[in-house]
Design brief:
By secondary structure, the chain is an alpha/beta fold. The protein is built from 15 helices and 17 strands. The chain folds into two domains: 114 residues, Urease, subunit C, domain 1; 295 residues, Metal-dependent hydrolases (TIM Barrel, Alpha-Beta Barrel), CATH 3.20.20. The relative contact order is 0.17.
Length: 445
Amino acid sequence: MSLIIRNSSYLISDVDHIHRDCDLLIEKGRIVSIGKDLAAPKGSEVIDASGCAVIPGLINPHTHLYQNFLKGVSPGLPLVPWCNEVLFPTVNALNEQFQGGNNRPAYLWSACAAIEMIKGGITCCLDMAHVNEESFIAWQDIGFRGVAGFTLFNQWIPENLIIDEEILRAKTVQFIEKWHQPDGLVQVCLTPSTVFICDDKLLTWTGEQAEKYDLGIQIHVSEIASEVQDTLDDRGMTPVELLDNLGILSPRLSAVHCVHVSGSDIERLANYGGNVVHCPKSNMKLADGIAPIFEMKEAGVHLSIGTDGCASNDLLDMWEEMRGAVLLARVAAKNAEALSARDAFRMATIEAARVCRIDAGEILPGRLADLAIVELNGAHLRPFHADRLLDMLVFCTRAGDVRDTIINGEIVMRDREIKTIDETEILQEAEKIESLLYDRRGNFS
C-alpha cells in the first residue's frame, strides 16, 4: 500500500535542501516523489504533517544492545576496569542463560532498545557484540532496520569467553550466509571489536571475509591512551597504522572513538576514505578523553555520531548525542565554529548511513523510506526560528518530539504509539527477566 505524508511544514531532503509546505509519496518501501499537492494512488494511507518537520530517520551507527540491561549501573570506572567489573560479568550471566536454553533476554534487550530508538526517530542501528539470533527476530517483529555486528576475538578477554578459532570462523560464515539480507531489514557486518583482542591473522581473515561477502567492518580504535601505547609496544605501530598495514583501512571500515589518534593517523583515515564513529557521551562518561573531531573534519575524514552501549551512555538518544558532539568539539578546539548543527545532523543521517552501508540518510526519490516526523509545537521550541531550522532541531529538539516513525515505508510508530508490538507487555517482561541477571547491589548472578 502507498503512504502519503501531506502538508509537512518542513521536509529535509538533506542539510542543503529543505522544502516548505509539501507532500511526500512512498511506495514499496521507497520514496517516490516530493512536491506540493501530490496525486496519490487510490487507497493510500495518509499522514498529516502540518506543523511538523519530516526528517531522514536518524541512524545510530554504533551501539551494544546487550548492554540495555545495564542502564544506570556504571560505577564510575575507566574503560579496562569497567570491562572487568561490569561488562564481563554481564556476559557471563547472559551466557549462563543461553546455555540453559533461555534466549529470551536477547529478544527483550533488542526489543526494548528498538522501542527506545524508534521513539526518538532512529530507524536503524549497528549493533556490535554478543550476537544472538533472537535479537534479529525482535527487529523483524517490530519492523526495525538493524546491522548485526558479528564480533570476532581470540585474545585478551577472559579465557572462558574465547572459543576455538576454527569454530569461530565457521560460525561467522554461517551467520553471514543466514542473516545478511542486503535488501531486507537485517544486514551483517564484521566487528573484531579492538586490535588488542585479535591477532594479526584474525584481523587479516576478517578483511578477507568482508571483501568476499561485501560487508562493512567496525572496530574500536584508539579509545584510550594505553591502547595506543600497548599496540606500539607489542606491534610497533599505532592501531590505525596496524589496520593500514593489514589492508583493512578502506571505505568499508568504521573506526569507533578515535580519541587518541595522531596527525598521521588522521591523514591515513582521510586518505583511505575510512569512517569514524564519534561517541561523545560514552567518551565523557568513561573519561576516555576528547576525540579531535575538528582536526578530523578539517582533514576530510568521514565523521558520524553513535551512542555506544547503555553501560557507558545509558540512553539511545541521538538528539542528545548530536548536541553533545557539537558542544564537546567546540570546547575542545576552543572554537565556536568547530562543529555546527548542520555538521551534526549530517553525521547522524547520511554519514551514519554510509557506516551502515544502507541506502538511507536522505529523503530523495529512490531512497529507502526511513524517516521521522517531528512535532515543532513544544515550549522548548518557542520562539521558533524557521530560518535556523537545523539549529532548532539539533539544539532544542528532544526525542519526545518525534511523533511518527516510518521504516521501510511502514508506519512503526504513529502518534507516539508503537504499532507493531505490545510495548507495555515487552517492557514488563524485560523488568521481570532483569532479576535473573542483576540484583540491586549491582552484582551479577
